[in-house]
Amino acid sequence: MKAIMRKDRQPYPNPINVISDEVLENGMVVGVKGFAENGERELYKVGKFAEGDIAAIVDCSVLMYDPRYDERDFELKAGERGRVEYLGHGDVYTISNALLPEGLVVGDKLNPDTENLGKYVKADEGIFLVRRIDLDFETQPSTMIEVILHA
Length: 151
What we know:
This protein has no helices and 11 strands. The strands form 2 sheets. Strands 1-7-11-10-8-9 form a 6-stranded antiparallel sheet, with no helix packed on it. It has a 5-stranded mixed beta barrel with strand order 2-4-3-5-6. The protein has strands spanning 5-9, 15-20, 29-35, 43-47, 54-58, 81-86, 92-96, 109-112, 120-123, 128-137, 140-147. The mean pLDDT is 91. By secondary structure, the protein is mainly β.
């Protein structure tokens, strides 16, 4: 089962088209590295978050025409084009616990993990704030997080 995400509040979406050398799942936090080096306009390269990157959340459209599959089967394959959303202060997402550290409590702060692609880590000065825990979104244990870029 792949990770899924719900956009609870996103008043000003800011999507960009991306490509990655690795498989991505919705809800992963990635680093935008800059323009892809393949000659296409407005296609960005993303990967594991590193210092100096712009953080974004993977939010690919999950269009599947095979009734045997649903959004929990979706992954963005390496080399395929997809979409991520730049973070906006106050945006709220419900994220699969598969991407989050264990033992979170309401009020914990999170940052992108610089060691593991797409994961989040606890931090003293984070850019995400845990708002609700122990949620069940589409049968997947999940947590609600809010972007706090200006905290």
